[in-house]
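Researcher: Next sequence.
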Amino acid sequence: MNATDTPKNVHQGRNIKRFREMMGLKQEALAIALGEEWSQKRVSLLEQKEVIEENLLKQVAEILKVPVEAIKNFSEESVLNIISNTFTSTDTSTLNAINYQPTFHPLEKVIELFEENKRLYEQLLASEREKAEILKQSRNF
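Model: Next structure:
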């Protein structure tokens, strides 16, 4: 497959932008990696191109550490199809991930935390009273 044989709805420049952003790279950093003749503006223009020359595509893929095919074939439509086909509300394997029906009430958890905090504070206060009592007794000797 050459640069002109792109699958339907694949925008190679947009894919470069997605991969660049996933890697946490700024356009300026990609421009520096591409060479002296590159600038942030030129990378921006590259990311707007639907089809990119094969040799440039290979160079960018190498910099981004992704296969050339990933840039050529990645499409949002196919990703959305995969997500919609594997992550549905009727799929019982996803219920645990989503937790539609939690087995606890969040407000009860907050109250439990408050009670625990109160108990710990009372323990701390009792400990401080003990220390104060020990200090009083040591001064009386």
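Model: Confidence is low (pLDDT under 50) at residues 1-6. Residues 14 and 47 are 5 Å apart (CA to CA).
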